[in-house]
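Z., the sequence and structure:
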Amino acid sequence: MKKKLLYSIALVVITAIAFCTALVAFDGNDYGGGDWGGGDWGGNDYDYDYDYDYGYSSSGSSGGSVGTIGGAIVVVAVIVIVIVIKNLNNGQKPSNTVRPGQGSQGANVILPNRNDQIQTIIRKKDPNFTADDFVTYSKQVFVDIETAWCNRDLTPVKPVMHQNLFNTTQRQVEDKIKQGIVYHYENIAINTAYLTSFVRDKDYEYLTVYLNARMIDYQVDEKTGNIIRGDKTTRWDMRYKMKFVRSVGATTKDKVSGAHEYNCPNCGAPLEITSSGVCSYCGSTVSTGDYSWVLTDFTTVRNDTVDDGIRVPPEDMQ
């Protein structure tokens, strides 16, 4: 009902403009046409800028009076139209547009899908390993870490993060707490994920997952609750590299699941680890990759991102 009323007002105003324009033109006045810029959405705000210039000349007082009145009506009419358009747009919920995120700067970087090739190599020494299970596991790790970052509490994901990565990320979390900034990642949807590279040396093996996800991303001032960056509607398209590490000789004990809970890779107990990364049940250090995969690097795909390919000792390829 409100929109119909506003549209009716706009129609009346436009008709008035047409009438006044004809009247002024008929009276021999000359004036410049209106010019205003288009809308620009920033968050949920709609900014509408306009610039309207006019002038007139007349040989008689009657004509000048009509020109003045007509020009004034036109100016008022434009202002009314601007208000109507602004009200109409403020009453609409902006669509969930999708925009490329930080990963877009590496849009030309191709990280190929090597699921089958990598699975074949790993299963020669680890028969229980499957690419599908590991990709499912990496997706859950991704979501859990993003959630922990927003909650500003990395405790739930400490078991799956290498100690060095955990320490670095923890300092970043503490900095955001001091700054009073709260992150919000919402409606996370993982579009694509696969194994893209595998490297094995004499001590460790590194498995990298390529992951493409879309999410709503914005930051809030903790004190005021105001959004200070981003918005609640734009979905960002992001590309990531997630690099996992484990010691050579470590094997898949059980089928990897997508559960939120993680078990100790040594004793199988529900994983509750100390600040030093030690399982509280068996005393094993589980955040170094000695027993199972832990996340050691987590970055967006950039222009300088390198495809590590497959690099293993020649005998492992046979």
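The two ends are 74 Å apart (CA to CA). Residues 98-317 form a domain with the Nuclear Transport Factor 2; Chain: A, fold (CATH 3.10.450.240).

Let me know what you think.
H.
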